[in-house]
């Protein structure tokens, strides 16, 4: 039993393998947070909170009257769910307004349940699995008639605790939710660093670490998507925490819309995290009898450093969040986007597929431009019928020919969008989000469909059900190429316009849910102008997401590095593209491009017909190599060895099989140096007592005729103990050239 309730002290203690989470009811019935951290016993930690006078922070009535001595202020209570305007001046979890316009709520204990299994949230993605035990604690505001059910899903062996909140209006009057966060977590003591993943289009998830101060830090998005700019994942860690040591807490909303995580350090030095839907632009009318579910948050706590935190999230997302059973596994894909952009016909696509098939590629993906009037990005979105000017005879003959090559066929869609110049927009202008009386704000010349309208979701369900039933399609790339403005639904009354952002994302989830469950054999890859919606919400439906429109292998190092803190390599869409690179103009050796793309779902995005014979033979070898490494890469433990932001001259990362039977080292030299310093590697995740043999050692892109020549060949076949490799390490020869890379596979041969 991972959840215990001690009736004597009214204490809930949740235990995972390495952490404990504790709450206690105070004499008034508030649910107080006592502890989250390294594993401790069940004894109450109520002693952590000495009552003291908190100056201008007001007290509860029962503690403040003339005949009462003492102080008990909501402003210092570590409440699991507190609301605005009742004396807690910190960021609160909820902001509720009654029918008479009175802002304020106070949630007091009502009842609790402990149940086996995971909980679900209506219309929202959530983690699943039998290895979970769920605690739900009902708190109630008797004045409002508002019940809040707080969920705690404890995945004991995985060190993950999920949280969510569902609000029920049990009164006979409408209540207005101006904020309904998913969770509040107080860390009353300690000095913390915050790690966040900011970015921009083509430069997503750049890791940034800073000390928390006495202020409020916010990571959020108001773009209608989780965004390129602020990924919904935040880590708090001890100031000296590193990859292998230190306490770390991960906060990951399972949500793809406007998210917000506020981290406040108050006047007492206590840190509070409030996370969930962004309160700006949000206002939900909760009718009598209705309920509102706030999205799930995945919390993870470890004292073994950032690397361990990441590995726990990787496993959890792969095994407990991602529901899609179709997977790219060791299949390599080719996508025509950077090869042709909009300029293609069936012959060009077939020629790319033919060459790819001859090299071992298993999946041909036809990107944007195959439908409607779509020769550029100015028109056609919404008209999901084939463009027969480009694809003579339609999709079927092309798909048939590609299947005849022994390949699967995949296709690009952008369901949530509509072009002004499209039949769909001409027929249903009110299906787009636009403000009455104003010209629309366009992004990539397109408008956003109002996914809050059930008829829009139904229409799209029909379109794509038809596409997938009438054609043998095994893969879908689901794109989304602009952020939302003019957020106004022509179908909702004025007082419900504050619901549009959230209803939109519920519509997206409904469509994803219908299509992924109707077509379970189809592999869905998410995309939003690259990685603009790379989040746990989307990963519940799609097992992989296009990481970035930036395919430059060197820039990808920092993008994939940042992404790896929360998300598994099996989810990171990564392709080898042409050089000079289309985004940066840089030239990186083909071998190194392969090494970087192999730390993702691996594919190609270039016209293979334009490669030399030598390059084609390298591509063939790369594909075979990836296929043999795929299980290790996709399900192995991932270790970051360097931080690209620290501007070392090389960047390294490693995979190790969970049973330590094999491991794969990857190194890229990013700043060629004169007389380079020794490049010293310390392997991770091995069995110290075992003997490992170097099965393969590939040096690619190095300047020829220098000391590294011949080293790779000599290295293969050598044996070392795990202890040698991990503790003494391995030194590479001096590497010269533009971005050379090294990949070393070792395998256990015995003890
Ligand atoms: C943005 C995506 O990230 C690209 O890979 C490509 O699919 C284009 N959209 C197509 O419009």
From TrEMBL:
Pfam families: Glyco_hydro_36C (PF16874), Glyco_hydro_36N (PF16875), Melibiase (PF02065). Its EC number is 3.2.1.22. Gene3D superfamilies: Aldolase class I, alpha-galactosidase from lactobacil brevis, Golgi alpha-mannosidase II. The keyword Lipoprotein does not apply. This is Alpha-galactosidase. The active site is at 479 (nucleophile), 549 (proton donor). It catalyses: Hydrolysis of terminal, non-reducing alpha-D-galactose residues in alpha-D-galactosides, including galactose oligosaccharides, galactomannans and galactolipids.
């Amino acid at each position: 039993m991972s959840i215990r309730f001690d009736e004597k002290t009214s204490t809930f203690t949740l235990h995972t393998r390495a952490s404990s989470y504790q709450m206690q009811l105070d004499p008034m019935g508030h649910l107080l947070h006592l502890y989250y951290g390294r594993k401790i016993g069940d004894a109450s930690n109520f002693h952590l909170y000495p009552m003291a006078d908190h100056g201008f922070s007001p007290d509860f009535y029962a503690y403040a009257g003339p005949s009462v001595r003492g102080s008990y202020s909501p402003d210092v209570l570590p409440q699991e769910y507190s609301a605005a305007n009742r004396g807690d001046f910190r960021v609160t979890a909820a902001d509720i307004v009654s029918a008479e316009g009175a802002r304020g709520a106070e949630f007091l204990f009502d009842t609790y349940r402990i149940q086996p299994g995971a909980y679900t949230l209506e219309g929202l993605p959530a983690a699943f699995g039998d290895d979970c035990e769920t605690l739900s604690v009902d708190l109630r505001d008797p004045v409002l008639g508002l019940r809040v059910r707080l969920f705690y899903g404890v995945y004991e062996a995985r060190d993950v605790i999920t949280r969510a909140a569902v609000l029920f209006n049990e009164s006979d009057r409408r209540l207005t939710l101006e904020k309904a966060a998913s969770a509040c977590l107080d860390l009353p003591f300690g000095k913390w660093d915050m790690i966040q993943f900011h970015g921009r289009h083509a430069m997503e998830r750049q890791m940034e670490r800073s000390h928390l101060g006495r202020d409020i830090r916010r990571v959020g998005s108001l773009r209608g998507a989780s965004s390129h700019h602020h990924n919904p994942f935040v880590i708090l860690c001890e100031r000296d925490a590193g990859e292998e040591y230190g306490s770390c807490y991960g906060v990951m909303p399972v949500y793809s819309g406007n998210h917000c995580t506020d981290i406040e350090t108050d006047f007492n030095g206590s840190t509070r995290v409030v996370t969930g839907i962004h309160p700006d632009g949000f206002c939900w009318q909760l009718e009598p009898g209705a309920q509102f579910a706030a999205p799930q948050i995945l919390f993870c706590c470890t004292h073994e450093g950032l690397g361990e935190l990441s590995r726990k999230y990787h496993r959890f997302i792969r095994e407990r969040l991602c529901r899609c059973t179709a997977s790219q596994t060791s299949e390599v894909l080719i996508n025509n986007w950077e090869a042709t952009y909009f300029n293609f016909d069936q012959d060009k696509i077939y020629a790319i597929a033919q060459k790819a098939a001859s090299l071992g590629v298993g999946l041909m993906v036809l990107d944007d431009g195959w439908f409607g009037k779509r020769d550029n990005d100015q028109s056609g979105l919404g008209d999901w019928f084939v463009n027969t000017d480009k694809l003579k005879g339609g999709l079927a003959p092309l798909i048939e020919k590609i299947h005849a090559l022994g390949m699967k066929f995949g296709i690009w869609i952008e369901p949530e969008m509509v072009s002004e110049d499209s039949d769909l927009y001409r027929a249903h202008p009110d299906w787009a989000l636009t403000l009455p009386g104003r010209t629309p704000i366009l992004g990539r010349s397109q408008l956003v469909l109002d996914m809050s309208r059930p008829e829009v979701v139904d229409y799209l369900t029909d379109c794509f059900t038809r596409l997938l039933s009438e054609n043998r399609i095994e893969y879908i790339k689901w794109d989304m190429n602009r952020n939302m403005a003019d957020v106004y639904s022509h179908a909702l009354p004025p007082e419900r316009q504050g619901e549009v952002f959230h209803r939109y994302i519920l519509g997206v989830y409904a469509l994803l849910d219908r299509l992924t469950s109707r077509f379970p054999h189809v592999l869905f890859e998410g995309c939003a102008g690259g990685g603009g919606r790379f989040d746990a919400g989307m990963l519940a439906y799609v097992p992989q997401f296009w990481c970035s429109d930036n395919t430059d292998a060197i820039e990808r190092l920092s993008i994939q590095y940042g992404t790896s803190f929360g998300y598994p390599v099996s989810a990171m869409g990564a392709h080898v593209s042409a050089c000079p690179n289309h985004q940066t103009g840089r030239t990186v050796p083909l071998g190194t491009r392969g090494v970087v793309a192999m730390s993702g779902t691996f594919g190609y995005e270039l016209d293979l017909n334009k490669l030399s014979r030598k390059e084609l033979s390298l591509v063939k070898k790369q594909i075979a190599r990836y296929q043999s490494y795929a299980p290790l890469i996709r399900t192995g433990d991932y270790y970051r060895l360097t931080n690209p932001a620290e501007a070392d001259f090389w960047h390294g990362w490693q995979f190790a099989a969970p049973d330590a039977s094999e491991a794969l080292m990857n190194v890229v030299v990013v700043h060629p140096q004169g007389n380079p310093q020794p490049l010293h590697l310390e392997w991770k995740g091995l069995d110290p007592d075992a003997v490992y043999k170097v099965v393969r050692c590939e040096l690619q892109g190095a300047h020829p005729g220098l000391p590294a020549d011949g080293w790779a060949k000599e290295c293969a076949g050598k044996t070392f103990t795990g202890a040698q490799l991990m503790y003494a390490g391995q030194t590479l020869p001096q590497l010269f050239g533009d971005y050379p890379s090294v990949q070393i596979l070792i395998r256990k041969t015995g003890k």
